[in-house]
């Protein structure tokens, strides 16, 4: 783009992306913009435009041009889908606004047409703006470059320009420095050095800009490349660690996240510093990337820019996190549609993660290769010693692979073509010898993926090598992840390839499906190595008794392999297992076992969290499904690893206790009545442990604390919690408090727990839930226990709202006071919740409610199973509706899976009998559905409207 103006004013000759069809003239017309500004000049008198009135008119012209240009850029983004061109167009628009203001200020505001040598100034774009790309909400980084020190004119021009840009609503980062200062600061500050590395002249003195370039290259860049590369790699690693060190988070940061734009920027910074190039074409010409890899890189860059620009346009701000609430709209903007098994947003996010994987592959190889290259440049004796250590040597037993500086590498470029089995053998050798992977080897693997065909998939040796890697005793997840990132895993097991980079559009799963599966393998490996004994005492105790590890590892690797299909993924996954396992070398019995584990991999979790484990029929039905003790052990291990791999904080002590209880209750049924400890023995052992932990108490108080609870409490609650509850009840009794609460926070899990002690009553849980909802608190879990003296001990777990524990505890105190008001009848739930009612979940989530009524799951009780979209006050509304239906809640099992709840209530009628009759069931179903469809209760019958219940509590 050629821009000219008055004589003596020099501008940048072209935009970095000129030559491509950017249609920049449709964004802004430089001549028309200047004509509009020149028309504001009231006279030819010097300084005639330095009035507030003229400045206001200048601002109006700039605003109109900026708004029109951005609207045009957004329209073109929709039309051609080009993310990089969009970023270039916005950058070009910004260039023209700055040039026009600079020109106008010099000529008509400050009347400085003849500049002295000291008044020369160049305005540079630096940082991301220096690359000639801007997202709609990006910061604009400017450097006002001076020959010497600042002059009055330079300060006035800079101030005039900056205030106009700020008034336009733009975020501007700026610095004013001389050439000398810029060079000196770049030598000691890598951030400044990086910004100036990407400098670009917008307007002003071109010679000044050239002088900075000459001195920067000679005094800053020359001879310091190794330190710069090390700093950028360390900066990248720190950024990745801060973001969770995975590119597979389901709400990724498009700019800063692993596999995002910043990784591309890191590559360009290093390339520009080391190879003195700044385009992907130049990287291909330099031999860093093949032509195909250069194309992949270009597509990735364009896609990420498109996503980022759409995000900024949609939200009207610099939004970098691709959160759930905007993912559907971004998917729609990019033209994705739903396919069987995958929604439009899930298809979009799968594409995103595949792109992030490409970025990770390319930048990882590039940066690792540079790291290796720079490591060879160490001079002197130290360099000689390191060269000896780096000297490659053949791995014993093979001529195809070498150990090169602690990394496995190929002996030559024909290793895989000569024997495709080597594409699996390299991972087996790396696992056996505990080696990392050389970047050259990874690059050659990616370029050889076409060799993985049906012949290789059916090759017995290849399959045996794969099983060896999968069941590695040290760190199978590490090698499987490298195998996945290199593309081998998805090609060798095509059904696994279908779930690579696949996300599930919900708030429960934190990672993509493939990342979740690999993390579950990591959990199993840690369990086998004895690293989880403190957290998982039961599974750690019996995992060494597993006779055949292979089916367990295979089942865990593929338990979610059928996600994204229209049919039930557990059933479809079992069918895949029946086809895959024989190919992998498993016999008929092992294949049947893997298929069963995959088909029923959710059963134990569901029973433990959503069923009454004190109901004998629950245990008997579960035992009938499991059939053998070996299967029970395998399913327990798989369930634990599966839950722990979902995401941070998903696994907790309460879930662990439920799994342990279910295992302990089922074991004797599968062993003909024999168990290492019967139910009664375990109860007595738990009581003895509690007595021992309360040994400092007097005997009478200690026995009272033990006698307060029924058997189910001792079998369900961890010992540390039992001690805490005992102290809590003792303190409440000492203060003669009928109603009491205690709260504690858990930053790691992101929750706050409130324990309530109160007289038992059918509406108690409803009132507690209402008190929480009235404060806008979301209940993630609830446990209810009836004590032997007629009181209830209810524990509710709330999602955390505040960062500081003190704020969370104050919120818990307010909630407790509200619950007490409800119990005393001073407040009513509908009025309280109405004041706070607002949808908690994004409208992006759609989950139709489902109400199931079961009489066959328990011999004594009716089971109400409720699934639906969570919102504030839901549990209060559900329990209130159940009470209004004249039902007595005997136990409740509250489970929250992100935006979805699965609440299970064991109930009887007021006579203590099961609920029978089709008409009664239909009425229950309609009433509970109305809680989801009509949360304000406007459609409910007046006869079942909740009414406050006074407990007559005196605190």
Automatic annotation (TrEMBL):
It comes from the Bacteria. Residues 513-635 form the HD domain. InterPro entries: ACT-like_dom_sf, ACT_dom, HD_domain, NT_sf, PII_UdlTrfase/GS_AdlTrfase, Polymerase_NTP_transf_dom, UTase/UR. Transmembrane segments: none annotated. GO terms for molecular function: [protein-PII] uridylyltransferase activity; phosphoric diester hydrolase activity. One of its GO terms (biological process) is regulation of nitrogen utilization. Its cofactor is Mg(2+). Keywords: Hydrolase, Magnesium, Multifunctional enzyme, Nucleotidyltransferase, Transferase. Residues 1-396 are annotated as: Uridylyltransferase. Uridylyltransferase (UTase) activity is inhibited by glutamine, while glutamine activates uridylyl-removing (UR) activity. Residues 753-839, 863-942 form the ACT domain. Its EC number is 2.7.7.59, 3.1.4.-. Gene3D superfamilies: 3.30.70.260, Beta Polymerase, domain 2, cca-adding enzyme, domain 2. Signal peptide: none annotated. It catalyses: [protein-PII]-L-tyrosine + UTP = [protein-PII]-uridylyl-L-tyrosine + diphosphate; [protein-PII]-uridylyl-L-tyrosine + H2O = [protein-PII]-L-tyrosine + UMP + H(+). PANTHER family: BIFUNCTIONAL URIDYLYLTRANSFERASE/URIDYLYL-REMOVING ENZYME, BIFUNCTIONAL URIDYLYLTRANSFERASE_URIDYLYL-REMOVING ENZYME. Belongs to the GlnD family. Modifies, by uridylylation and deuridylylation, the PII regulatory proteins (GlnB and homologs), in response to the nitrogen status of the cell that GlnD senses through the glutamine level. Under low glutamine levels, catalyzes the conversion of the PII proteins and UTP to PII-UMP and PPi, while under higher glutamine levels, GlnD hydrolyzes PII-UMP to PII and UMP (deuridylylation). Thus, controls uridylylation state and activity of the PII proteins, and plays an important role in the regulation of nitrogen metabolism. Has four distinct domains: an N-terminal nucleotidyltransferase (NT) domain responsible for UTase activity, a central HD domain that encodes UR activity, and two C-terminal ACT domains that seem to have a role in glutamine sensing. This is Bifunctional uridylyltransferase/uridylyl-removing enzyme. It comes from Aureimonas phyllosphaerae.
